[in-house]
Design goal:
The structure is a homotrimer of 271-residue chains. Helix content of chain A is 20%, strand content 31%. Chain A is α+β, with helices and mostly antiparallel strands. At the A-B interface, helix 1 of A face strand 1, strand 2 and helix 2 of B.
Amino acid sequence: MDGPLVSFLSDYGHGDEFVGVCHGVIARGAPGACVIDLAHGIPPQDVRAGAVVLRDALGYLPAGVHLAVVDPGVGGARRALALRTATQERVLVGPDNGLLLPAAERFGGVAEVVDVGDSPVRLEPLSQTFHGRDVFAPVAAALARGAALAALGTPLAAAELVRLELTEAELHDGELRAHFVRVDRFGNVVLDATGEQLAQLARLGSPLALEHADAVRPLRAAGTFADVAAGELLVYEDAWGWAALAVNGGSAAALLGASPGHAAVLRRRQS
Amino acid sequence: MDGPLVSFLSDYGHGDEFVGVCHGVIARGAPGACVIDLAHGIPPQDVRAGAVVLRDALGYLPAGVHLAVVDPGVGGARRALALRTATQERVLVGPDNGLLLPAAERFGGVAEVVDVGDSPVRLEPLSQTFHGRDVFAPVAAALARGAALAALGTPLAAAELVRLELTEAELHDGELRAHFVRVDRFGNVVLDATGEQLAQLARLGSPLALEHADAVRPLRAAGTFADVAAGELLVYEDAWGWAALAVNGGSAAALLGASPGHAAVLRRRQS
Amino acid sequence: MDGPLVSFLSDYGHGDEFVGVCHGVIARGAPGACVIDLAHGIPPQDVRAGAVVLRDALGYLPAGVHLAVVDPGVGGARRALALRTATQERVLVGPDNGLLLPAAERFGGVAEVVDVGDSPVRLEPLSQTFHGRDVFAPVAAALARGAALAALGTPLAAAELVRLELTEAELHDGELRAHFVRVDRFGNVVLDATGEQLAQLARLGSPLALEHADAVRPLRAAGTFADVAAGELLVYEDAWGWAALAVNGGSAAALLGASPGHAAVLRRRQS
């Protein structure tokens, strides 16, 4: 796979043919390209979860064309974007609903952006419900083949783009007021608190209390799962630099009944 | 990925090693090939669903070798096939249970077909339960490497092949009598009615009634999800040209309790 | 995909970005490599299931670098390994928890092994919870690029490595005392009995009885699913050479309430 790299994130799942068909369209448009499936299990239509995953993961991929489709407004008035980041010249392609910007900001922000909704490379007839196939994949393929952004759409100003409000945890008076952001396969629950905030709240090994949904539970600040007893709840800095909740050998999400958006408070506790 | 293209559809799912092992067998047999996973989430042993997905998706893939395995009769008397289509010279490989023919018919029908059950390239010892690995993947790899059909099996007549009966919706007297065909990840329910039949029944925006399982529900003909209110049921022409039911921001399958094969009637309604 | 081959097995699932990020790290470290996803649906933290799948599947893959990560002890004291097998010079990379050894033994055992926990190619800062990304993928990429084992870690003796206890069925007095090992997508239940043991117990077509969880059920020894009536329970030699339980057109796992580790006894029965 020495060809140009295209990464691909979506909420299409792996059960249907949506991802495979987009691969087909990319292979037709850019025969030498290497496509990496970054993630397709973003919860359906959860733009926020997609934006967070793309932001955190992008730096681990080679620079290339980064296709991202979580698109509840498909077929409606939302714009379709291709943008280039200020550093590393990464090119991001996807809907204008906030999905791309948190990732772009990790690479200096948006240096150039075009509206590709009417791109000359889009497939015709255009469906109203599958722009991943008809708009975004053909544009990504053309970019992988070396097309310039300006040849694929009409210029926009970065200030015009739709932005998401992402919550941020707050630390004061020995309390970390946070929200659940996402849950992974192992039942680990990622918070909107940074590992730094966690370190300010508690040293490794310290006893804490977690308040969530009218319940208060003991937990422990730890470096990794195996630092606590089997079945014990812990909070740790995850591999992306975020504070996260886990149960050693179990599922924190199942224990807590955690859903994205829920508020939670971590407090210091006497051991 | 400049090598020959192999696409791969199955009901193997992504949880087990079935798909990965077939990739391995293809890589051994055709080291330069590029494999695109079209879909592996076909419901287990649902030949009809596999046939429909392959038929609708194939045109979006580059021409190549198209491996498809949904094979409830594995190890029994059913034949194993490799065929070439009349147009685009696509090569399809899979069991003789009707899975391949609807796709082949989109490309002019079957120009040549051979029985590869005893193919010289099949793996030995031959298992009785995993012909994807032992028969179909080695045959697909040999074809990707450039082998002729005639070198891999014994000739058959196209008229001998097993055909599926696929239902078709009927429109008369302002009623569209249809069946549910499949459900996708977003809970959209595809009907066996075409977008043309839907357009004949109702203009965009028209109020309709859906009768299914002794319930009658209002719905609206629309172009895309966002054309109706959140939570509202709609019927639209999907990205493959079929009429489909959806709920904006929700799941039509969950709302309706829809299963493949169910009958449903769409009628005009006073607004 | 003419580049070096890397296969990848894990319990990461396909819902999150874990697999995609590891692909990105491999693409950065070994731009020409071809990555085959062998399986990522190993039940979370089930080292035994991962070991069994890797052992059975590896021979179907081209020789290359074989990355395997099922790693409940990540961030703790367990070592990280890269090893070379005595035959075929396959290179296996993963945690020192028994995951790799059953596969290595199929290829003559361990010819050379190094501890790569402090490998010069690992990513910094090192996370405590995602060594797939930070340790194992970079090591696999370096090996795919042609690095020597000795350049990536410190030598270990094969005798020092952690081994799993895998159960084995016993056959005596016309009884096959076995355990459930794993369940696949189709609900087939693999036993720790070999096809040879099954053949010694019963000829094809023979009636048997299955005792499990205080229930006794009739079943039949058969070659494949279609050899028994729809809905009937059978035991067959599966595609990997193991005895397995299935229901023709149904799910043996659902019928039996089977979980890995359960004991079961198969006995001869008068027809």
